[in-house]
Amino acid sequence: MENVIEFVKTLLHPQSIIHYGGLSLLLFVVFAETGLFFGFFLPGDSLLFVAGLLCGTPIFDVHIITLLFSVSIAGIFGNFVGYYFGKKTGPVIFSRDDSFFFKKKHAIYARDFYEKHGGSAIIMARFIPIVRTFVPIMAGVVALDFKKFIWYNIIGCISWVFSMTLAGYFLGRAFPDIQKKLEYVVILIILISMIPVVLTFLKQKRANNQSNN
Fold it and tell me: Which of helix, strand or coil describes residue 55?
């Protein structure tokens, strides 16, 4: 049990994922966070940013091109799995009981987000934690045309992976000493990535209050 707990703790810290698991574990985390409903708690934005920041260093000796394309493939296939899961489970997913690995409120939030933005939600969701995990599932639930889903999926994933990873990469090249303050960088990225979640939540809450009044 202690080994399982330690493994989970490792999955929550971007630098630990890279340090202990290298590229293989990084790809698994990206795949899980974008395709498996229990992956919502895994780091996404901060992991890509830190991977780009450390790319090419002794800590993470991977070429940037290899990193970009391998992570993009993992994210694309992750969403395919999420879509397939949603298509097979359908409305049943909303009747599941809450557990550590599943929160019904996240599924409902993603459903509302998808209903508001349509297919473009698949692209937008890539940049929003938690929503990123559940929106492809919702696309499967509503049986979005698979050909359209393919394009939304590819465009969204490449945009997300390239922007986050290259931002970290170029920052690391410009300021090599920033690696010494990696923990502060991770905290900053997490806070920035949560801004869309907070703004959307407040907007939804305001809309609900207005409808109740």
Answer: strand
